[in-house]
Amino acid sequence: MNLRHTKYGCDLAPELLMRETPRGHLQVVEITNLADVFNELEAEEQAWKEEQNAPIRDKIEAAVQVTGAEKSTSQDRWGIDKKIVITVTLRNTSAKVITRIEGDLVAATQTVPAVSKEWPVFSDVPIKPGTEQSVAWKFDSNMFIEEETTIFNTQGDELDIGFTIEAIIMEGEEPLAIPYRD
Predict the structure, then answer these.
(1) Residue 79 pLDDT greater than 90, yes or no
(2) Which residue in 70, 80, 132, 154 has its CB near the most CB atoms, within 10 A?
């Protein structure tokens, strides 16, 4: 038996284990491949979301580019209040002033096993057309959270920093925002 998922345009094939009841009716006892069906559905959903997001992502990427990213640290003189500082340089390639950028910032070590930390961030620093702007975000480094301590202690050249822009607002324009975020 196949089930058609109309939104994602895929066929799912659950395998049913059935038995006959004393009254002669069929009763579903088990769906033997339920985990596989859910995994397939999740993959189809992800592909559908990426397809829906693609036109907006293309418009965002045409308007703004990440041209650099680096990590630095700061701490108080006792070494208790530690901060991770991530600076990202953005270039406005559009013809309008960008007044707001939202996205997800990720720092990941290049060691094995890799350790990563993700932060949702935004900036309201205007970026004029054709110019670059550096934006810095500070995050606490809690000594009891391994990911934060590892990112704090990792040298900049041993760290991969990524910034995925999820939404922008340009002066006089409707916001461009990725509709299906993970």
Answers:
(1) no
(2) 154
134 Cβ partners below 8 Å, 6+ apart?
Answer: 68, 87, 88, 89, 90
pLDDT of residue 136: 96
Task: Give pLDDT, residue 12.
Answer: 87
Among 14, 48, 57, 46, which residue's Cα sits nearest to residue 33?
14
Token pair, residue 118, equals 């993700």
Terminal CA-CA length for the chain: 31
Is-above-0.70 flag for pTM?
A: yes
Q: How far is CA 70 from CA 73, 110, 122, in A?
A: 10, 14, 17
Q: In whole angstroms, what is the distance from residue 150 CA to residue 111 CA?
A: 10
Cis bond before residue 126 (omega within 30° of 0): no
Count of other CB atoms within 10 angstroms of residue 146: 11
Q: CA 4, CA 126: separation in Å to the nearest integer?
A: 47
pLDDT at 112 over 80: no
Which domains does the chain possess? 3-60 (no CATH), 64-177 (2.60.40)
